[in-house]
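Quick one: structure for this chain?
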Amino acid sequence: MLQRVLAFIVAVLGGYVFAVLAYSQLNLSNLTDMGVTVDLADRFGTFTHDVVSMTSMYLPIMTVALLVAFLLAALVLRWVPHLRTLGYVLAGATGMFAVILFFKVGMGTHPIAVTRTLVGLVSQGLAGAVAGLVYVWVSQRLSSDAAP
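Got it. Here's what it folds into:
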């Protein structure tokens, strides 16, 4: 059980870092489209600022979305365990799409600005998919390390 919790935490953090990286770079892309020069130091500084500043709101949102998605995936995967990797990848992506659509349709807002565009929406779905992949990889590594 502890191994699953640890794998989930690592997966959420991996997905979060991917989501924020996409968010930061897509926002900076908008600046470069307007003719603003953005160098590597600006890109890294923006990314590190966003990783820290978004933890209070976006990290909990992602955590809940992925928790619900992974719990539902675990229930389904009891019947098709051979599809474990695909199941968690799809669950992560679906969980992220679902939470973004919940905020858009249910509350009339976007959890993060880049989801107003198709590229931004897809990037956040990919972040959920990355979280699913990380979850499978870490949980497999932890269970094989625990085996006698």
